[in-house]
Amino acid sequence: MKVIGNTSLAENTAKWLGADYYPVLERTFADGELCPRFETSGNVTLGQTAAIVMQQHRGENINAYLMDYFLVLNAAKDAGFAKIYACMPYFAYSRQHKQYLPNQPVSALTVARTLENLGADAFVTVTAHEPSSLPELFTIPSINLSATSTLCDYVSKKPEFSDAVIVAPDDGAEEMAKTFAGLLGGRKYTCFEKKRDVRTGEITMTPKNVELLKGKSAIIIDDMVSGGGTMVETARACSHHGSTRIASLFTHPILCGNALEKLKACCDEIIATNTIESEVSKADASPLLAQALAKLEKK
Ligand code: R5P
Prior knowledge:
The protein is α/β, with parallel strands linked by helices.
């Protein structure tokens, strides 16, 4: 297998696999048109597999990222790879995996169809926003990897959080919090109730089981932090109800605008994975990706 990618996440995935790494070199025309090109160490030979591990950088426009991804996938197909695994560490546009209001697109389906039409033979992602939607979105095999144990390894080494209660900001994160609580040896967890207005995006948070929080540290766990509203509101509620220290753990550090600054103001620790490159991408997802890609190749 060859790994085509744009950052150290792809390079490390290749190392774990013992595979060649083909870096993507970027060129952008003045009007924003992208012209990526991957460098090989020799010609693509018959029957070879490529895994495309393209990673979004914090602050990068998601639309440019997706277009870049599509172009690289197209180039890999044209180069003659027999099989292509599209590995998108953060599944861009996955929040819109269904229609919330009439006449909206199911954007995740548009991304899935495009990947398939361009020649992807399998799709691999980490902590999909709604994992159960993947089989409905893709006709090719789709794999959702959980980063919970990757994040858990990191925080389990921090004694200041040895008494922590695990907090899910909404029911979407409850499963993650439950698994996390189990991995940390049976910690207590609670799931807040979050409502987001589908038209304005405004969040209202209703904390639950707040008696658990008093005098204990809290680990808030979520799939992603984008604008930061969810995490900040949850952290504030935890402090208000007596949490002594707060760690914010999430898989995807999208961290738009001043989200990171807002988080720093209310959390003692901020830990994310490197599915997106950022200064808080402390937990490495490359072993997870390598394992999944190796499994696919064995099938
Ligand atoms: C929502 O359901 C997700 O799991 C996240 O909680 C949400 O997308 C985070 O967005 P923001 O950081 O903008 O509140």
